[in-house]
Each structure stands twice: as C-alpha cells, then as structure tokens.
Write a structure and sequence with these properties.
Helices cover 44% and strands 19% of the residues. It has 403 residues and is α+β, with helices and mostly antiparallel strands. Keywords: Membrane, Transmembrane, Transmembrane helix.
C-alpha cells in the first residue's frame, strides 16, 4: 500500500469518528428518554395494578380442605362377628357397619321381657285385690249395720225384763266386733289401693320400671349392631373380625364429603382487612386450576396455629426469635359445586379473598341455637324400643284394662 493511500484512509477514519462523536449525544438522550418512559409506564402499571387488583384481595396457598370426621366406636363390649363396610365405601345414615356377638344381650332381653310381662300381671292382680278389698269393706259395713240394728231393737226389752242383759251385752260385743272388722277391711282396702291408686296398669310405677329395664336391654341388644350416624365415606378402618372391642374404642371413621370447608392460613399482617362474609375464590390443587370454587368467609380462628399446637412456643425464653404467625380463616364452600367437583379432606388449595368491602365484622356472630350437625339414628332406636315394650304390655293386659 502506498503512502498516499494510507493518508487517505487515516483522513476518512478521522472524519467518521468526528461524525459519530457529533451524533452520540442525541442517541443518548433518546435512549434515556425511552428508558425513563419504560420505568414510568412500569410504575404507573404497578400503581394501577396495586390499586385495582392487589389492594382488593388477599391470597394464600397455605390452605387445606377440612371436613367432619365422624368416629365410629362401640357402645357395648363384644366380639366382632361381621364387618359390613370397608375403606372408600359410601354408607348411608342408619346403615349397619359392624356386628357384635349378641348372645348375652339376647338372654338379658328375654329376661327383661319376662319381667315386664310379670310386672303387668302383678299390677293386674293388685287391681283385682283392691276390688276384692272394696267388697270386703262393703260386707263389713253391712254386718255393722245389722249388728247395730239388732242391738237397737233388743236393748229396750231389758227394762221390761223381756230380754236377758247377757243377750244385750252379746249384741253390744257383736257391734264392736263388726266395727273392728269394718276398720280392718278399710285399712286393707287402703293398702291395696296404695299400690295402684291414680294410675292405670300401663302407667303403674312397677310397670314403668320394668318397661325402662326392657328398653335398656332392647337398646343394648341393638347396639351390638353398630350403625353409621351420618351419610359419608368410610376411612381408617381398623376393626377386624374376632376383635374384642370395648365401649368407646374407635373402629373406623365416616367422612361426609358434602359439607366441606377450607381453612386458609393467612399471615397475621394479611388479616387487617379480612372480614366475615367476604367472597372468596378457591382453587384446589387436585384440579390444577380447571375447577374454581366460590365461597365466603364464615369466621376467623380464635388464635394462631402455634398457640393450639401440641407444644406451643415459649416466647418468653431468652432465645426468642420473632416469626410471622398464621391464623386460620374458614371458607364455606358451595355444596352444588362440591357435587360437580368432589373434594377430599386435607387437599391443598389456593384461596383468594376479595377484601374490597372491609366494613363487616372480624368476629363471627353468636350462634342461632341450631345444631351444626345432628343424627336421628339413635332417636329411631329409642322409639322402636318403646313400641316393642308397648306390645308386651298390651299382650298381658286383660280385655277390660285394654279398653
């Protein structure tokens, strides 16, 4: 390359450098403006997002589905002879789940049945005895009147010496004896009526006591069949055929999957605007976002989880470290949505509470006195026991008493 060419290139490079140097400040200003605009737009978007989205809701993924776990236990001791339900199976309220050997219960029931029948017959006998005692009083009263009449007729004859004094004295003794017999008959009648007075045969205290004993034996015999108190699904079955069970021993559990809720554990600094009655959206991990449940806040826990734990934290110790606490917030779910997308107790969920309206109460209102859960299975058992006792009573009443 010649010296002339080299000088030309140097001159060209110098001109380019000076031109770029002249253009760089403008490019820098435009770049700064663009960057600033982006930051401003991002800030505005964040403010708008906070005002219209984040500030109107509280969200947590520390939420789990809850439900009632009804423990099924024995009420009487016995040997398990049959198991009629297993884990995952649906059972209806009143369905027999487990059967125990009822030999001893049947023997006692037969004894109480005989005792009830005997009590009815004894009261009938006492009623007839009272009637007989009343008849004896009537007879003694007639005898007294007859003796008094004889004395009144023959006593005046003594003065006319038409009757011996000894005879009149005998008549006076007969009157005294008749009076004593009347008094004894009246006392006997009173004693006979004391056991039955003011009651019918079926309502006599002795019959009522026998009826109660029979009902107790009948219910005990029925309790050898262990019933499902509610409709639900069997879980945690531990009972086996041949087990000797005792009253209170848990055999399995029944979980109703219709009335479920979600306990959402919000951080304490998220509770500021959460109120009872606020709408909530629940997304269960089971459905991966394909199903959404709509519920509402029905109450906030009375304390944090650490307070009610088995070993609560001792915050007064010297090595205390502050940890953000969580308080369970209960979310009621719609039963219709549960029917469409069933859930299971313990499943994880994401909960979003709409806190736009935070004027409501933070504490739940007092209860209205209605039961939150109930069963009529055992009421039916008691009514059936009364029916069976009434059959025995009616079978041992006379036709007159029955009418």
């Amino acid at each position: 390359m010649s010296a002339t060419d080299s000088d030309v290139k140097k001159n060209n490079n110098g001109d380019n450098d000076s031109g770029m140097a002249a253009k760089d400040p403008a490019k820098r200003r435009r770049a700064l403006i663009i960057v600033a605009a982006v930051f401003v737009l991002a800030a505005v978007a964040w403010v708008l997002l906070w005002l219209f989205v984040f500030s109107t809701r509280e969200k947590t993924d520390n939420a789990y589905v809850g439900g009632n776990q009804v423990a099924i236990s024995a009420q009487v001791p016995g040997i398990v002879t049959s198991i009629l339900a297993d884990d995952t199976q649906r059972v209806e309220a009143g369905q027999v789940l487990v059967k125990l050997d009822n030999t001893d219960a049947e023997v006692r029931l037969q004894q109480m049945s005989s005792a009830l029948a005997q009590a009815v017959r004894q009261v009938r006998q006492q009623t007839e005895s009272a009637t007989s005692a009343d008849a004896q009083v009537t007879k003694a009263r007639v005898d007294l009147k007859k003796a008094q009449a004889d004395l009144a007729r023959r006593a005046p004859l003594v003065a006319a010496q038409a009757e011996a004094p000894e005879t009149v004295q005998h008549l006076r003794d007969a009157v005294d004896q008749a009076q004593a017999s009347l008094d004894a008959a009246q006392a006997q009648a009173a004693a006979s009526h004391a056991a039955i007075e003011g009651t019918q045969v079926a309502t006599n205290p002795a019959v009522e006591q026998a009826r109660a004993n029979y009902r107790s034996a009948w219910i005990a015999a029925q309790r050898n069949n262990i019933y499902a108190p509610v409709t639900g699904y069997v879980a945690q079955r531990s009972v086996q055929v041949g087990n000797s069970v005792q009253p209170g021993q848990q055999l399995m559990a029944v979980v109703p999957l219709h009335n479920l809720w979600v306990d959402a554990n919000f951080k304490e600094n998220q509770l500021r605007h959460i109120r009872v009655g606020q709408p909530a959206k629940v997304e269960a991990d089971l459905y991966g976002g394909s199903a959404e449940f709509h519920g509402k806040v029905i109450g906030l826990g009375a304390g944090t989880g650490s307070v009610f734990s088995l070993l609560p934290a001792q915050n007064a110790t010297g090595n205390w470290i502050k940890v953000v606490q969580r308080v369970p917030v209960r979310i009621a779910l719609d039963d219709k949505e549960l029917d469409q997308h069933p859930l299971r107790v313990g499943l994880s969920a994401d909960v979003t509470v709409d806190i736009t309206d935070d004027k409501g109460a933070m504490n739940a209102a007092p209860g209205n006195g209605r039961p939150i859960a109930q069963t009529t299975v055992y009421d039916q058992m008691a009514s059936k026991a009364d029916e069976e006792a009434e059959k025995i009573i009616q079978a041992n009443l006379s036709q007159r008493d029955a009418n």
